[in-house]
Design goal:
Shape: elongated
Radius of gyration: 23 Å
Helix content: 40-55%
Distance between the termini: 36 Å
CATH class of the largest domain: Alpha Beta
Largest sheet: 5 strands, antiparallel
Oligomer: single chain
Order of helices and strands: HHHHHEEHHHHEEEH
Number of strands: 5
Structural class: alpha+beta
Number of domains: 2
Length: 238
């Protein structure tokens, strides 16, 4: 299964400005070693993001890698946004389908522009049903708990404990995740605990921000991560 925009094969996604940076890399690659740095130093720095500049004169960084770095900036001056969004949307749908087939439940997926990434979100929270199970609430008591602050205090204690367990899991197991996962998941972010009117309770979420290609191996690792997060949440909120 190959769901991706192939690494280094994405020049068609670049604007003319983005392609001009690749053209600079082409010049540098063909230039004598003694003048490579001079070529890059002569560039108008305002036209190129500072994060890219060091890689233009580095012989260890290929032309294809520079294209990937340009796309990774998410800079709309460099990337044709509609084409990128179309490809990311397709990739997002394929990843969602694969995760569901692998038995991952209750998650959301979305495309983030201009970050040029797919975001997998797993929400968890303290709902009215949870409170009813634990405290056998009578009619009207749910609203009282919201008004007197008990629900907020209880939810934050409960969800903070879950946050810590998830963070511990990600930190302890981070190095054991497949190398591909560590490079393709840009961030694992846990949101603040807030009251959600639609959910009618307090919740927070884990966001996995994924960039570049999505392969079978990456999907397999994401499945393990999401199922472990689900297990932590279910155990804590049982």
């Amino acid at each position: 299964m190959n769901m991706n925009i192939k690494e280094g094969k994405n020049e068609e996604l670049l604007t003319e400005k983005g392609k001009s940076i690749v053209a600079v890399k082409d010049v540098v690659l063909s230039a004598p070693a003694i003048i490579k740095s001079s070529v890059v130093e002569s560039l108008p720095k305002s036209d190129i993001e500072s994060s890219i500049i060091p890689f233009l004169s580095d012989d260890n960084v290929t032309r294809e890698a520079v294209i990937d770095l340009i796309i990774a900036t998410g800079n709309p001056d460099y990337i044709q946004q509609e084409q990128m969004k179309t490809l990311l949307t397709k990739r997002c749908k394929q990843l969602t389908s694969s995760l569901e087939k692998n038995g991952v439940k209750s998650f959301q997926s979305s495309v983030e522009m201009p970050l040029s990434a797919v975001i997998i979100t797993k929400k968890f929270g303290v709902s009215e049903n949870h409170m009813n199970r634990h405290f056998h609430l009578s009619a009207g008591e749910w609203e009282q708990l919201k008004e007197n602050g008990f629900l907020e205090s209880y939810s934050k204690l409960k969800l903070t404990a879950i946050d810590r367990k998830i963070t511990k899991y990600l930190l302890i197991n981070g190095e054991s995740f497949n190398k591909e996962v560590r490079h393709k998941i840009l961030t694992m972010h846990i949101s603040p605990i807030l009251f959600d009117k639609k959910f009618n309770g307090y919740n927070c979420s884990v966001e996995l921000v994924i960039q570049k290609e999505i392969s079978t191996q990456l999907t397999s690792e994401l499945t393990k991560i999401l199922k472990e997060i689900e297990s932590i949440c279910m155990e804590a909120l049982a």
